[in-house]
Each structure stands twice: as structure tokens, then as C-alpha cells.
Amino acid sequence: MPPIRPAQFSAPIKAPEGAPNVLLVLLDDVGFGQFDVTGGGVPSPAMDELAREGELYTRFHTTALCSPTRAALLTGRNHNVAGTGVITELATGYDGYTGIIPKDTATVSEILRQNGYATAWIGKNHNTPIYETSAVGPYDHWPNGLGLDYFYGFMAGDTNQIRPFLFENQTPLGTPTAPDYYLSVDLADQTIDWPRSLEAIEPDKPLYRGTDSRQRFAPVTPPV
Q1: Keyword Calcium on this protein (predicted)?
Q2: Quick check: is 56 in a domain?
């Protein structure tokens, strides 16, 4: 009788050595040509520097709607192939307009997660069917079901900058009550703080972070 050996577990998948961290910043209701970096008149020193040090891509197609454009960007596919021909509130039963990103149309975050990345989305999530956005789920099409280990933000196309209703993963956090609370500041802090929470656990794991502050999306609410 052969000796009984202890169970062997496969080693966790690791990203290739030198895999870069990825930070994806989305801005609603901001025209491509408004900033200095693309020929507009609004000063954009940070984006100017990023363009000088990296690459400036000028041929990405947007649909002039947030959910379809985001679905295309997050999957690398045509927005109809990603099931999001319209914003999720206007979804229908027709192919390409269901408001559901199909499982066979993998998100970039899912591919990276399966290849050793830690993944997170901070801010606006407007790519979940409207009838699945309550606290009772189902959660298959929430950010955690689309390849994201962590989510902090709101489940809607827009919200109040001062009194938003927030979620952490699938847990309702409710509405912040601090008198000086401002959503865009909170989301920026969360985007910065999330990697710090991973340092003690997996310091060498590359990161994918997406963030969408919604600050330019109407109704525009200035800080108190």
C-alpha cells in the first residue's frame, strides 16, 4: 500500500514579476477637448505631466452616456457586446440592451484578478441592473461579481455629494453625517488608503484601482 501523503494545494497565482500597478480614473460629463492636455483651455498640470511621461491615446470612442462607455472601457469590447447599449435604468430585453455585462465578456478587473492582481473600484457604479441594486441583491452583477475584490461607493448614476448613500462591498453603510463630509474627498481618500490596507497582507501584489468621483455630474454640489 503506497504511503498516504498530505493533501497538496496549488500555490496561489502570482502576477508576472514587474507587473505594473493600474489606476483608472473616470470623469463624468467632462469633454475630451476641455483640458490643456488635449488642446482645451482648462489647466490640467497633473494630466499634462502624465501625458509627457506616458502615452496619450486619442481614439477611444465614447457613447455620450456613462453606463455604455464605462462598460466598453471596463471590458475592452463594444458597448452592445457588453450588454449596455443604454444606461441601466433604460435597459430592455433586447440583445445588447439588457444592462447586464455577460459572463463571457470578461472585465479587465476579472482578468487581472485571475492573474494575481488585487482589484478595487471606488466611487460610482452604474453598471448593475437597476432591479439588482438594493441591499437584498442578487450580487452577481455588483462590482464584487465583476472581478473586483473591494468596492466602496454608491450604486446609482448620481448621488448627493454631501449626503450620499454608500456601500462597502455589499454592506450598506448608510449616509455619512459628519458636518464637513464631502463625497469626492472621501472617495479620493479611499482610493489612496485601500493599498495601505493590503501592505501588511500582500505587499508585493500589484494593484488595479478604478475610481469615479462623479464630482462633475449634475447636480453639482459645492462643499459646505
Answers
A1: yes
A2: no
State the catalytic residue, choosing from 61, 79, 126, 141: 126
Q: Is residue 129 part of a domain?
A: yes
Non-local (6+) Cβ contacts of 142 within 8 A are 125, 128, 132, 151, 155, 170
Domain that holds residue 159: 106-212
Convert the pLDDT of each residue in 101-133 to its tens digit: 998 999 999 999 999 999 999 999 999 998 898
Alpha helices per DSSP H over the chain: 45-53, 66-75, 108-113, 183-198
CA 3 to CA 44: how far, in whole Å? Answer: 67
Q: What is the pLDDT of residues 14-53, one digit of tens each?
A: 898 899 999 988 888 787 788 888 888 889 898 899 888 8
Based on the structure, what is the number of domains in the chain?
1
Report pTM: 0.88
In the annotation, is 66 catalytic?
yes
The set of cell numbers assigned to 43 is: 489647466
> Is 141 annotated in the active site?
no
Residue 223 confidence (pLDDT) above 90:
no
200 domain-assigned: yes
